[in-house]
Amino acid sequence: MRIGIQAKLALLLAIAAVSMPSAARAQGKPAVDSPRVELAIDYSYLHSNAPPAGCGCFSMNGGSATIAVPIKSSAFALSGDLTAVHGVNISSAGYDLTLTAYTVGVRYKRAVGQSAWSPFGHALVGGVHDSGSLTQVESGSGSSGTNAFAANLGGGLDLRLNHRFSIRLIEADYLLTTFNNQSNNRQNNARISAGAVIRFGK
Known about the structure:
There is one protein chain. This protein has two domains: about 30 residues; about 170 residues, Porin. It is built from two helices and eight strands. It is elongated. The termini are far apart. About 25% of the residues are buried.
């Protein structure tokens, strides 16, 4: 009987020793997935209606870099976005245009339970610079580059690969710019992006 009790105690101690590291890993898991500084590098496609009177739509291609710094340990982060896109053969006249937008604001991002999916949304404001032959025509001033107000509203979905890297499956944004176009001085741009996300820190 005494041997049986000792055997049971030894078995319980063995189970405890095995399960303690697992429990520690389970308790430590939220720390791995806790908000950290993120840098996203994306390919960006922009659909613009810059010319006034109807759509006059055209496409632009380029890239964007977004950084997000968590506000304490919440799902909110201070975010900054830099986007540069270029378009050629715009309209029958073959104009070209380069847009560089720089916006800052707030992002909200939350993982779906314990899954690897992380949807997010943001609201950013700032400025935008344009250059190219289309700029000279629309501004009416012959200037090769102008600046205007910009607002970037949208969101997307990230898929976490590990504690360091994620894939930005899609980001869809409404990018408002307010260049002088000799009409309503407003351009409604749709931006679609995808790329990679790197997280920094422990």
